[in-house]
Write a structure and sequence with these properties.
By secondary structure, the chain is an alpha/beta fold. About 40% of the residues lie in helices and about 15% in strands. Helix 16 links the parallel strand 7 and strand 8. The structure holds flavin-adenine dinucleotide and iron/sulfur cluster (SF4).
């Protein structure tokens, strides 16, 4: 293992020794460096209040960033928190894991002028953590309970944001989820070193205290059909995310020790949450001491390589068929992985997995990039006779996710989906073609971001409450 990698072993969810965490703190600013009040004030005062808030325009939630920076700079932390939470149901989560370099911070005027962005994400996190510390974050108190109820399928950020907004108006909300814990990809996808699980659990506990009911281990399609849920509730939100892992169809794909990214990440996250995970404990889904190859170039691939480093892998390589400039993942994540000792094998495409029962090698073709394809990205072309071999004890496939076949699974063939299998919903109202059924998050957009899921959940809540008001009026007239 390289010196760089050695530094990071045992970090993250495996209760690292104190000395190594301190080493990491010195080297990285991302989630570990806590702001103290004076530092937050100082950083916030760097905002020039430019009057053209590109940061706000490029935040999917249109957060009023300049104003909460001003409040923070003046030490008015409670007002800063109230403003930050008025447009975002999980500011402490977005502050940690939004790809700020592509959103608010990347468009900060100070960044554009070459002086380094105001660190908006860290300040958003500080404001909200400070609010939790001071007990300003409180459960919803309902003045008037309403009888109408909303059933939400999926306890990821889209479902949770919608649930909170709806509950604030006094409606009954039940969230159904097939996992054993709420949080969706916040709990079982995104690793602990990017987003601590306690942060997610604190949020979902607050929603429980607010009167939102969670029914876990409940799979719609298996435990109830969509129609059965519709009969129980006055409106439904589908927020099931996208989970069908894309496959690589090459010889040797059926060999052992080749795993989808979510299997690897879920095992690691469950272990970090204190669960007994047999496949981790017996070494199957554990990178310790192994030569790991991750295939893919998105943020999921970055999470897999960085998790492998923390599990004390012998070596970690990331294979991607395009180059750094054409990678879909956040550049910040790639830099983090490189600093931790991950080797990127750019412009390379897997050709064959080799081994007896379990994978031992991977044959790879070199790629050159041709003209842009329909997506606008340069097309990968295999170079003749460019084949080379890499040694691998474990392969992790992180090639992206597609939606499951929901009309089939939910036994509702009339539910309209796009040619990609995502649910067709009106992007303003999040309404599907079925009356009273709304949809939000990745299942509408395809694999996206937490901040967009929250935005969709909030938009769906506005439409659902309009729908329920009309229903309520009708019910009163009939009565
Ligand atoms: C490894 C990984 C890392 C990521 N890192 C980042 C990041 O750093 N920053 C960022 O912004 N985004 C990141 N994302 C993307 C982000 O997590 C998603 O865009 C976001 O979670 C989508 O929210 P959602 O609520 O639509 O779906 P999800 O979070 O996927 O939640 C969907 C929920 O629905 C439940 N469900 C599904 N089907 C059923 C059913 N039939 N019955 C009952 N329940 C069901 C699931 O169990 C799940 O709990 C990452 C994604 C992955 C996979
Ligand atoms: S929600 Fe995300 S994009 Fe918006 S201000 Fe916060 S970190 Fe930036």
């Amino acid at each position: 293992m390289s010196d760089k990698m050695l530094k990071f072993v045992n970090l993250g969810q495996q209760n690292p020794p104190k000395r190594e965490v301190l080493e990491r703190k010195e080297n990285f600013n991302e989630i570990y460096k806590e702001f103290i009040n004076e530092k937050a004030k100082e950083q916030s005062s760097r905002c020039s209040q430019c009057g053209v808030p590109f940061c706000q325009v490029h935040c999917p939630l249109s957060n009023n960033i300049p104003d909460w920076l001003k409040f923070t700079a003046e030490g008015r932390f409670k007002e800063a928190y109230e403003l930050a939470q008025s447009t975002n149901n999980m500011p402490e989560v977005c502050g940690r894991i939004c790809p700020q370099d592509r959103l608010c911070e990347g468009n900060c005027v100070i960044e554009q002028s070459g002086h380094g962005t105001v660190t908006i994400g860290s300040i958003e996190k500080f404001i909200t953590e400070n609010a939790w510390k001071n007990k300003w974050v409180e459960p919803i108190k309902i003045k008037l309970e309403k009888n109408l109820s909303v059933g939400i399928i999926g306890a990821g950020p889209a479902g949770l944001a919608c649930a909170e907004q709806i509950r604030k108006q006094g409606y009954q909300v039940i969230i159904y989820d097939r996992y054993d814990r709420p949080g969706g990809l916040l709990i079982y996808g995104i690793p602990n070193f990017k987003l601590e699980k306690s942060v997610v659990e604190r949020r979902t506990n607050l929603l429980k205290e607010s009167g939102i009911k969670f029914i876990q281990n409940f799979e719609v399609g298996k435990d109830a059909t969509l129609n059965e849920l519709k009969e129980k509730h006055d409106a439904i939100l589908i927020a099931t995310g996208v989970y069908k892992a894309r496959e690589i169809e090459i010889p040797g794909s059926n060999l052992g020790n080749i795993f989808p990214a979510m299997d690897f990440l879920t095992a690691s996250n469950k272990k970090g949450l204190g669960d007994k995970v047999e496949q981790f404990d017996n070494g199957t889904l554990n990178a310790q001491g192994k030569n790991v190859i991750v295939i893919g170039g998105g943020d999921t691939a970055m999470d897999c390589v960085r998790t492998s480093v923390r599990q004390n892998a012998k070596s970690v390589k990331c294979l991607y068929r395009r180059d750094r400039e054409n990678m879909p993942g956040s550049t910040r994540e790639v830099s983090n992985a490189e600093e931790e000792g991950v080797e990127f094998v750019w412009l390379s495409s897997p050709k064959k997995f080799e081994g007896i029962d379990k994978v031992e090698n991977i044959l790879v073709d070199k790629i050159e990039l041709g003209d842009p394809d329909e997506s606008g990205r340069r097309k990968p072309i295999i170079q003749n006779n460019s084949e080379f071999k890499l040694n691998a004890d474990i392969i992790i496939k992180a090639l992206g996710f597609d939606p499951e076949d929901l009309p089939y699974l939910f036994k509702e063939k009339n539910l309209q989906v796009s040619k990609w299998g995502t649910i067709k919903a009106d992007f303003d109202t999040m309404e599907t073609n079925l009356p009273g059924v709304f949809a939000a998050g990745d299942i509408v957009r395809g694999a996206s971001l937490v901040v967009w899921a929250i935005k969709d959940g909030r938009d769906a809540a506005i439409s659902i409450s309009k729908y329920l008001k009309i229903l309520d009026e009708k019910n009163k007239k009939v009565a």
